[in-house]
Structures are given as C-alpha cells and as structure tokens.
Amino acid sequence: ALKKQSQAKADGEIKIHRSVKHANVAQFIHFFEDSENVYILLELCHNQSLNELLKRRKRLHELEVKCYTM
After folding, report:
1. Label partner for 8 (CA 20 to 30 A): which of 23, 37, 38, 39?
2. Residues 35-53 pLDDT 10s
3. Quick one: which of 15, 46, 37 has its CA closest to 28?
4. What is this structure's pTM?
5. Tens digits of per-residue pLDDT, 7-44?
6. Distance set, CA 36 to CA 3, 14, 25, 60, 65 (Å)
C-alpha cells in the first residue's frame, strides 16, 4: 500500500509542477522512472535556488521576498 501511496504522491507532484509557469519557479522539463526511483528533470538555475540563498544569508528582507514571489 505504501508503494501505491508514494506513486500517487509522485504523480501528483509531477502534475502540479508540470502546470506551474512562473519566472521564479524552475521549469519542469521531463520525468522518467526506473524500478526504484522517479527522476524529475528541471531547468538549470544559474543563480542557485532560493533555499541556497537563504542558507548563505540566514534571512531575507521583506522586500526581497516580495520580489521573488511576485
């Protein structure tokens, strides 16, 4: 049952990410799977991720967050 739940969750995540079109969200390109894993291919983010920025800076100003999310 767990494998079915995991597969359903992965399918849902792929469906959602495939439908998101936003300048600040890495674009979905393709997915594939083998007998054990699902692989999701996203566009390369040359300026790194928001998570990496947050790790480096520890905190962001409200105006910065607004710019990234709008």
Report:
1. 23
2. 888 899 999 887 777 788 8
3. 15
4. 0.64
5. 899 999 999 999 999 887 889 999 999 988 889 999 98
6. 10, 17, 27, 38, 37
DSSP the chain: -HHHHHHHHHHHHHHHHHH---TTSPPEEEEEE-SS-EEEEE---TT--HHHHHHHHS---HHHHHHHH-
Under 8 Å CB-to-CB from 20, ≥6 apart: which residues? 28
Q: Which amino acid is at 70?
A: M
Would you mind telling me the total number of residues written for the chain in this entry?
70
Distance set, CA 42 to CA 23, 47, 56 (Å): 13, 14, 23
